[in-house]
Amino acid sequence: EDDPAVRGVIATMLYEHGYDAEVVADANEAFSLCESSKFDLLLTDMVTPAFDGLQIAEAAVARQPQMSVLYMSGYMPRTLEHSLPAGAKFLPKPFTTLQLVAAVDEALDRSAA
Question: What whole-number distance in Å separates Cα of residue 48 and Cα of residue 27?
């Protein structure tokens, strides 16, 4: 997510439901963090300034193949929509806290409680 306020709200939603989350400002920061820390899930917006969500996910998963990916977007060009990998998890914005938690649980292959 390229909007700092939205990133903060999403992080707060996750923290309040017991998730540990690392919040980064851009794809390069995410790639760097993937080199030094292990993650279970990447939550990425589909439309960001330098890279699209597919490019971010591809590079991050190349560094951590066990990592799941959850894509989100409030607006997604058709070219990206049709490029989502088969079985990709997608969360449309805007979303509620409960929708976010359910999507994260599903992406992590956990049952939403």
Answer: 9
